[in-house]
């Protein structure tokens, strides 16, 4: 009414409203005192000034942040927070966006270990006598194990009630409820529109269409939001899980190394688990919420509505129908969970083959091994394809049954139910309502039989028509909801497969992280991960091994192979050690023990505390130099980051100095500056790569360094200078090499691979009496061998002379001895010998002078 009245005015209603308020303010100002007006003016001015200042401050801060972001992005760097958080800047549109990553607290890992390593017995995930044994992969499917696994993962995905994910799930639920409500409204409106159309009520019909369009617009927005929130939830889950996994995987416990080399729980497919399986799991989990949550709500609401309009009989029929079909489908459905889990594994194997080829492309190209690699790749793909085809074949039968039940048998059932009020009004919910009381012809005949004389009859018919349409739509929605639930059963089984993969990954990571290899004593194999009794002592001023067996480990739960039974030596700062011995003697194994890669099964290993720079640091340069992604600067400062270096106040000049010390000073100009990014492993030569390793060592300047053939590709003229450079910087060297020429740069020598079985060793100071003695003994041994060779040569000449005299003497053929004539031989053999002898004699005769 108000709208109609304003329309009668000639003036614009907005300007009238504005005028009204201006007049009111003006009247108010007239009545206020001068002081109050002054005060108000001052407050207003101050407000304007402070808000302008605030905006200016905000703007300059934002600009500074953007500049910092651009600079750090260029330098491949970030910021470190006091709480251990890292702030990274990532490219976003034309600028940068700030991302802060908080590390997972160790207490969270401790709390979760119970979920992943000690699942409840009821879940059937563990050995009943030793529940702490990490769960073997149970058959993935809809069972208690799946429930436990999913809830455990949910603990990571939604860590708190106050977390962002809860908010997202809540908003998603609101939109899902809204959509259900809108479906109800649409069902009712549908009935009304048809009723008005049949009743010939033009105005009401048009108004109905208008409402339909308005609701349609709102419903489309709701649907779009549901999809958007579903994707947001999936990404949020993935972010939580990925960060959690990365914190476990890249911990100081070297989980990333031990996972493949010692545990083997996920084979060498950790990458496949973290990228592919995790994504599939998060997508499936997020979509399940809407694909299962919405139809569930629909089912309750629509069933209630149908109960009201169709009565208890219809509802019991509906429920019985659900139950029967769900049971049937569950019985006949193939094990989708298990199939999905195996599919993931096969995908991983195929991907690993490709990753391997990319990593070794140069070697394969040199050998021309493409044909062989192709065979392997084709084989891998054939296996994957076979598996996928098997799954699709299994799905045909199931999909057929599913479609028939959910689409056709359910609609037929729906018609039967909606017909209840028509044929059995007394049984339906409308039994005593007046519009259902009249025995009627079918709705179709009613619509054609509208006449002036039978208004009451028509009213009843159109009401019945409306309720039929509404019920039919409700039935359709219900059938849709029911079928979506049934379809989701399949999705749920597939989710069980993905859940099992992700759960297996996280529990294996926890097992490696906590070294939780508990087995009953009778099942512990010697030198297996369950049999680690030695100690790795960090924070020692030198390097010491005491009665340590050097054992090449094996995957859990097998035994490792003993290379050296007991190794003992002690080095103090300044004791430069050369470890030498034949290939495979266990030189690198000693480095792996010191670095903590291989377990100390027995005895004691002591070493400086940190791996890396500093006075309490020990740095390892491996045989194959590793070049990380990033700038040229990153190659030299690795494993430190640009953030660490700038926090320590170290400049590029220092990095340049280290490059020069490694005889690589030309690199910065050649490659176009410190911020150049390239695929460095392809750009640098073998020797250059090793020298970058040395430059890294100079930059870090640790107290100790272990060089594992780290200069094998460096030219001889440079190598000596590099060793001396290390020593000048106060670095004590432990060099692993087969080249005895490096002895002159060291003070101690450890020789491995001695003795008949190659498991003995010798440790001594270079240049001592004992060492001279041992070199002397070695030389004497060589001289003796040489003498033996001389003796044998002389003896051979004597024998040859003797033979000459025996067989051919001054041109006459002599009688051969008896044994040559074959005394004591068989008849046949004697004849053959005689024949051969005859032939030889003939030859002799021909050539004899
Ligand atoms: N990750 C591993 N798992 C199990 N065994 C290993 C592993 N790495 C090496 N081995 C085995 O340990 C033994 C010692 O290897 P190591 O690399 O220490 O030899 P090395 O003396 O350094 O030889 P080279 O001079 O060829 O480098 C070898 O027999 C090798 O097969």
Automatic annotation (TrEMBL):
Top-rank lineage group of the source organism: Eukaryota
Keywords per UniProt: ATP-binding, Nucleotide-binding
This protein's name: ATP-binding cassette long-chain fatty acid transporter pxa1
Species of origin: Zalaria obscura
């Amino acid at each position: 009414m108000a709208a109609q009245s304003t329309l009668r005015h000639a003036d614009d209603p907005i300007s009238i409203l504005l005028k009204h308020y201006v007049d009111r303010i003006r009247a108010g100002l007239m009545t206020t005192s001068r002081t109050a007006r002054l005060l108000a003016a001052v407050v207003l001015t101050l407000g304007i000034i402070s808000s302008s200042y605030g905006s200016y401050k905000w703007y300059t801060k934002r600009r500074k942040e953007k500049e910092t972001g651009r600079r750090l992005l260029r330098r491949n760097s970030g910021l470190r927070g006091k709480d251990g958080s890292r702030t990274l800047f990532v490219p976003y549109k034309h600028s940068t966006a700030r991302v802060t990553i908080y590390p997972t607290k160790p207490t969270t890992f401790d709390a979760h270990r119970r979920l992943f390593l000690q699942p409840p017995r009821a879940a059937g995930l563990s050995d009943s006598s030793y529940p702490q044994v990490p769960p073997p992969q149970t058959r993935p499917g809809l069972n208690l194990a799946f429930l436990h696994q999913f809830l455990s993962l949910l603990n990571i995905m939604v860590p708190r009630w106050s977390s962002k994910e809860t908010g997202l799930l809540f908003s998603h639920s609101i939109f899902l409820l809204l959509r259900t409500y809108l479906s109800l409204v649409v069902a009712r409106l549908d009935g009304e529109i048809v009723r008005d159309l049949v009743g010939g009520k033009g105005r009401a019909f048009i108004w109905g269409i208008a409402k339909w369009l308005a609701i349609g617009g709102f419903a489309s927005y709701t649907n779009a939001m549901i999809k958007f929130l579903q994707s947001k939830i999936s990404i949020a889950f993935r972010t939580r899980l990925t960060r959690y996994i990365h914190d476990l995987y890249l911990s100081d416990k070297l989980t990333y190394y031990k996972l493949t080399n010692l545990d083997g729980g996920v084979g060498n497919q950790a990458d496949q688990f973290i990228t592919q399986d995790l994504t599939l799991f998060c997508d499936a989990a997020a979509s399940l919420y809407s694909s299962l949550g919405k139809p569930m709500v629909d089912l309750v609401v629509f069933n209630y509505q149908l109960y009201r309009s169709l009565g208890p009989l219809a509802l019991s029929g509906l429920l019985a129908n659900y139950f029967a079909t769900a049971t049937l489908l569950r019985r006949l459905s193939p094990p989708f969970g298990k199939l999905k889990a195996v599919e993931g594994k096969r995908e991983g194997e195929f991907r690993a083959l490709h990753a391997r080829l990319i990593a070794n492309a140069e070697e394969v190209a040199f050998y021309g091994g493409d044909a062989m690699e192709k065979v392997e790749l084709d084989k891998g793909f054939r296996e994957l394809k076979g598996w996928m085809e098997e799954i699709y074949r299994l799905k045909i039968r199931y999909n057929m049954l599913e479609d028939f039940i959910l689409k056709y048998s359910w609609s037929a059932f729906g018609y039967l139910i909606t017909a209840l009020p028509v044929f059995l009004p007394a049984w339906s919910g409308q039994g005593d309502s007046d519009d259902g009381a009249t025995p009627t012809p079918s709705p179709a005949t009613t619509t054609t039989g509208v006449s002036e004389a039978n208004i009451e009859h028509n009213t009843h018919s159109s009401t019945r028509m409306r309720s039929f349409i509404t019920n039919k739509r409700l039935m359709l929605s219900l059938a849709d909801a029911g079928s979506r639930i049934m379809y989701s059963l399949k999705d749920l089984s597939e989710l069980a497969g993905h859940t099992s993969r992700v759960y297996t990954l996280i529990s294996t990571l926890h097992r490696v992280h906590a070294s939780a290899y508990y087995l009953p004593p009778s099942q512990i194999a010697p030198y297996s991960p369950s049999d680690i009794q030695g100690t790795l002592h960090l924070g020692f001023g030198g390097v010491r091994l005491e009665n340590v067996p050097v054992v090449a480990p094996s995957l859990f739960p097998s035994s490792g192979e003993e290379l050296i039974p007991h190794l003992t030596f002690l080095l103090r700062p300044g004791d430069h050690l050369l470890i030498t011995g034949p290939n495979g003697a266990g030189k690198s194994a000693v480095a792996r023990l010191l670095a903590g890669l291989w377990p100390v099964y027995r005895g004691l290993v002591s070493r400086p505390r940190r791996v890396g720079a500093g006075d309490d640091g020990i740095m390892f340069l491996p045989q194959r130099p590793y070049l990380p992604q990033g700038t040229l600067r990153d190659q030299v400062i690795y494993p430190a980051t640009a953030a660490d270096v700038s926090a320590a106040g170290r400049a590029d000049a220092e990095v340049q100095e280290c490059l020069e010390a490694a005889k690589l000073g030309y690199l910065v100009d050649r490659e176009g500056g410190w911020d150049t990014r390239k695929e460095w492993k392809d750009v640098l030569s073998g020797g250059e790569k090793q020298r970058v390793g040395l430059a890294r060592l100079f930059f870090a300047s640790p107290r100790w360094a272990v060089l594992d053939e780290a200069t094998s590709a460096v030219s001889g003229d440079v190598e000596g200078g590099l060793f001396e450079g290390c020593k000048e910087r106060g670095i004590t060297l432990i060099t692993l090499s087969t080249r005895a020429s490096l002895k002159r740069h060291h003070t101690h020598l450890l020789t491995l691979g001695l003795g008949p079985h190659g498991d003995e060793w010798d440790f001594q100071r270079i240049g001592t009496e004992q060492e001279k003695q041992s070199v002397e003994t070695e030389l004497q041994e060589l001289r003796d061998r040489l003498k033996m060779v001389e003796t044998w040569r002389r003896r051979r000449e004597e024998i040859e002379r003797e033979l000459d005299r025996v067989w051919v003497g001054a041109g006459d053929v002599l009688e051969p001895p008896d044994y040559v004539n074959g005394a004591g031989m068989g008849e046949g053999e004697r004849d053959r010998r005689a024949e051969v002898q005859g032939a030889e004699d003939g030859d002799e005769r021909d050539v004899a002078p």
